[in-house]
Amino acid sequence: MKKYQFPTDFLWGGATAANQIEGGFYEGNKGLNIADVLPGGKERYDILLNPGFDFEIHQDQYYPNHEAIDFYHRYKEDIALFAEMGFKAFRMSIAWTRIFPNGDELEANEEGLAFYDRVFDELHKHGIEPVVTISHYEMPLHLVKEYGGWRNRQVVTFFERYVREIFNRYKDKVKYWMTFNEINSSLLMPIQGLGFSIQKEEDKYQPTFQAYHHQFVASAIAVKACHEIIPDSKIGCMILFAPVYSFDSNPENVNYALQEERLFNYFCGDVQVRGEYPAFIKRYFKEHNIQLDIQDGDLEVLKEGTVDYIGFSYYMSRTDKLGKAEGESSQGNIIGGIKNPFLKASDWGWEIDPIGLRISLNKLYDRYEKPLFVVENGLGAYDKVEEDGSINDDYRIDYLREHIKAMGEAIEDGVELIGYTSWGCIDMVSMSTGEFSKRYGYIYVDKHDDGSGTLARKKKKSFFWYKDVIAANGGKL
């Protein structure tokens, strides 16, 4: 097998999100966030993609994020397991509602700040670098209900107060930051990223892109503040990247794939990396009658607040064509498209395309010429605990091996790659469906879709495989 050369300081590790692992629903004076009102099961998927969600907790529903996998109380145990694997980095997020429970307070919550102090100290004790996402699908519910989410310009002020608080508090503990998780995903699911539910399909364009403008300004303000408060820090954006393939060589389909890729994959990145709205978006705004309220100084802020690197998630590619017929859509693929006959799919219908990761890395580096960081990539699958207690997830090992090879090839292509934090280093609540059975981790957690389980941790076969990969710096796959 070919051996790949990864940089000597390459950040191998794993990735999580506060709302999917922490639990501690009401503890430490935490406030309610969007994830706290999303029920588990397939109903969640429908809520995310369809209009009219009420953002309320209903007594007849089960809310898996309330306990999640109880990282809030078990973080020392979990971090010790990450250290045993040899993690160089751990990507996590800070729950905004632990720092400002409602989001609009003037004073921060000391209990929440102290919790993350303890987590960061524990990581550093084991030589693990925290990579922190500032906002990861967990906007304070109060800002959703009282202000209308990111549609409201006031939220920029609240976000700046939040980021300055955490930068000042953790300036000696965190050097790698990202602003908004998978920021472009709000084009499909505004609930989690932008904090509102579209009420009518035809009304989605104006509020979505106005909210985006506010988020871009907030991100740029955060970048400037981070550089000011933590001069040796690196702060990036975070994009859900899925290369779009044309179904065939028909020029109409090739052009359709190009336009789809520019809007979904590059629009948000262009603003955050280049510091300005891309030329192609002007036509899109005109065709959809979008008129942004851009205040004096906003464009200068965007230009001054460009990111240091591009973090991105990669799970799948997308194949598409103009005017696809009903029934042609790829099942289970939240980003749409049609079935690619050359690719296999996961248990949830996500098409598996390791070469697509190499393509993505090259496309991003060619466009931006800034360091890249693969901060999410992994396989959600049903895992079986054998009678002897073992979990033989060779399918996950195969998936990860091929994607790491793709990164190695991209590095040889000339791509500057900071690190790799695979998604779900420990089993957790699924973002899209709220299921525990959709497992990504190297560490099995005894927790199930009905809420039962002991929360006991167990090492899978992939745990030991990834440990060897890290020890050999990618030289042993």
TrEMBL record:
<dbReference type="GO" id="GO:0008422">
    <property type="term" value="F:beta-glucosidase activity"/>
</dbReference>
<protein>
    <submittedName>
        <fullName>6-phospho-beta-glucosidase</fullName>
    </submittedName>
</protein>
<dbReference type="GO" id="GO:0016052">
    <property type="term" value="P:carbohydrate catabolic process"/>
</dbReference>
<dbReference type="InterPro" id="IPR033132">
    <property type="entry name" value="GH_1_N_CS"/>
</dbReference>
<keyword id="KW-0326">Glycosidase</keyword>
<dbReference type="InterPro" id="IPR018120">
    <property type="entry name" value="Glyco_hydro_1_AS"/>
</dbReference>
<comment type="similarity">
    <text>Belongs to the glycosyl hydrolase 1 family.</text>
</comment>
<dbReference type="InterPro" id="IPR017853">
    <property type="entry name" value="GH"/>
</dbReference>
<dbReference type="GO" id="GO:0005829">
    <property type="term" value="C:cytosol"/>
</dbReference>
<feature type="active site" description="Nucleophile">
    <location>
        <position position="376"/>
    </location>
</feature>
<keyword id="KW-0378">Hydrolase</keyword>
<dbReference type="InterPro" id="IPR001360">
    <property type="entry name" value="Glyco_hydro_1"/>
</dbReference>
<dbReference type="Pfam" id="PF00232">
    <property type="entry name" value="Glyco_hydro_1"/>
</dbReference>
